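Table S2 (text version). Query chain:
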Amino acid sequence: MAPSLALPAETARERVLLATAELWAEVGFERLDVESICRRAGIAADRLGPDLSTRESLARAAFEVPVTAAVEVVAAQYGPDRSEAESCTKGIVGLLQLMAANPAYAFVLYIGRRQAAMSLGVTTVSRNAHQLMVAMLERLGEGSDLGSPPLTAAAGALGAAEAVIRREITAGRCERITRLAPDFVYGAITPFLGQAEGLRLAALSREPGGGKGAQVA
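Corresponding structure-token output:
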């Protein structure tokens, strides 16, 4: 079974940001309010610091939680003892495990930010995170015997995966998205390294025995 990647909710700040993400997923950005968030978190409003005193500042901070965690999880899979393709595969699986373990934050990252990116001023953060993931995929083509893939291959694979993840989150199936790892890995790897390698790495990412967690170790 995959290790838990549930994000902590121990400190007052962590609890209030998780409450923000949960309510955002339940009622939408426009109906968020500070009082409801504080009640959910069990924290008095006067305990919030000036950096978390408004709906916008709370939502912005809540958005940054899964972005930071996602970058850390993916980056942790890269190392000198792994090939670029193996690291990419493990990064995809780790990201799916992170989202499955944190459905409220998954909503904020994949759906909520589309509702309120301009209002929260997180467009640049979203773009940078997207470009980082595209760069991760494009590195697969370095030294490949297949020649240069289409310029839109990485962005296309990422966009297709995000669309499926949004569908699963909207349908309330966030905890099951790790089962999509083989399809995502195949779609990401094949344009750069070919079908055989795509199939091999997709098989490595498959949940052992059809269990609850995709294989990442």
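Notes on Table S2: The domain at 12-210 is CATH 1.10.357.10 (Tetracycline Repressor; domain 2). The CA atoms of residues 56 and 120 lie 6 Å apart.
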